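Private note to self, pasted from the team thread so I don't lose it. Backbone tokens:
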């Protein structure tokens, strides 16, 4: 049993059944990490790629565009050129939206990402 305490909604109770023999705290961390990853991806797809507003329904268009959006998202995440390190040695990343805007304004930078930076990442030595 897990009690969900939030400031937005009332407390809710969730029940989980599992064969995994782990402490409750460890299971809670695993569940939170899973939903954090899911929520981050789908939030970006909805807010920056407007996936929920898509009205494509013909044949396989919906699935194909979803794959392309996720591919673009992953390409954008690979771009580390704009990451900066602050005084405390923490990495400050440029947001996905700002990277997308930058690619629109400077298409050569996106071309460089696709044809120079990404291939160098996977270059076999």
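Design output:
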């Amino acid at each position: 049993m897990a009690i969900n305490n939030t400031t937005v909604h009332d407390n809710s109770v969730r029940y989980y059944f599992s064969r995994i023999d782990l402490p409750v705290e460890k299971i809670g961390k695993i569940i939170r990490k899973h939903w954090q990853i899911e929520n981050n991806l789908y939030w970006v797809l909805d807010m920056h790629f407007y996936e929920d507003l898509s009205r494509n329904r013909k044949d396989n268009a919906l699935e194909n565009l979803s794959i392309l959006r996720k591919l673009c998202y992953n390409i954008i995440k690979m771009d580390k050129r704009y990451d900066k390190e602050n005084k405390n040695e923490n990495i400050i990343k440029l947001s996905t939206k700002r990277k997308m805007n930058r690619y629109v304004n400077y298409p050569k930078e996106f071309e460089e990402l696709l044809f120079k930076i990404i291939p160098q990442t996977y270059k076999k030595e």
